[in-house]
Amino acid sequence: GWSMEGYLEEVSASIKKRVGDHPVLLLISGGVDSSVVAGVLLSALDPEKVHLMYIDTGLMRKGETEAVRKSLEALGATHLSIIDAGDRFLHALEGVDDPEEKRRIIGDLFVEVQKSDIVGKIDGDYFLAQGTLYTDLIESGKGVGKNAKVIKSHHNVRSPLIEAKRNAGMIIEPLDRLYKDEVRRLGRLIGLSESVVGRHPFPGPGLAVRILGAVDREKCRILREADAIFIEELHRRKLYDEIWQAFAVLLPIKSVGVTGDARRYGYVLALRAIVSHDGMTADVYPFDTKDLLEISSLITNSVSEIGRVVYDVSSKPPATIEWE
Ligand code: XMP
Known about the structure:
Layout: H1 4-19, E1 24-28, H2 32-44, E2 50-56, H3 64-74, E3 79-84, H4 86-93, H5 99-117, E4 127-129, H6 134-139, H7 155-158, H8 160-167, E5 171-172, H9 180-189, H10 194-197, H11 217-236, E6 245-259, E7 262-275, E8 283-284, H12 289-302, E9 306-311
Parallel strand pairs: 1-2, 1-4, 2-3, 4-5, 7-9
Antiparallel strand pairs: 6-7, 7-8
Helix pairs in contact: 1-2, 2-9, 4-5, 11-12
The structure holds xanthosine-5'-monophosphate (XMP).
Pathway: Purine metabolism; GMP biosynthesis; GMP from XMP (L-Gln route): step 1/1
GO molecular function: asparagine synthase (glutamine-hydrolyzing) activity; ATP binding; GMP synthase activity
Domain GMPS ATP-PPase: 2-199
């Protein structure tokens, strides 16, 4: 029968055989998927051959870049480039409010930064590893069934460079037969820390698809602070592990509020928390009202630009998990 140990043995052997003496490049997103791929590569291959690249897009969550650095160093990574590309991403996104346009810009810039900042640093013809999951293939319409549709373009599946590597037969996707919960089991099997393995999924385009409308540095800062409070409270209240994915969304509207005796217009923040098996369908997490009210107060008390907090009570379908 099928076992995770068997799966790991099989993918490790197949990676070793395919890669031979070539280097492997893995783009790290900071999420559980690419961290598990990093762990698989570092255990299957000579770590000297494994090049990890993390692009800080300026669209990451609070403290994320440092957390990523620590977890990869703990896995024994020796070649880890952290590229600070925040200015480039934010500049490219200026004034862009169409969600698919944002994804396209971010995807293209990922590839550009990758070309300019890393490719020349790796000697020889390298393989590209990816944390693609079974569900990514379904949702991008690559894989499965005649009725597969492109629901959202996941930039991590369709960049030209990745296509070129795919056509050259130099792509490694060790998770492409796994669902998210299986990726977590694999992560535990290879000794990843629970804080990495248990982490909620985070989309490649990052906060750009959680700031509805045009993205700027200030909105990133506001959302980052609010999201960090939400997530920290979920940990503190021991709710984090009951929830499959939770995050805050900054809406492109301001609503009226009152501070002292003055009317003030503040941002509206939506909180999203869902339970799911694989992200394909999702149910709303049924918070105790008390938790929601307390979290809402904490956010509006600490992030002065936010005047109102709402809770998204839509399941998937018909809504998607992300708002864009
Ligand atoms: P949706 O919003 O389509 O999300 O219900 C399903 C899962 O996919 C994640 N997601 C993305 N991940 N690039 C990614 O790497 C993307 O463009 C993207 N869009 C959505 C989402 O966070 C959820 O876990």
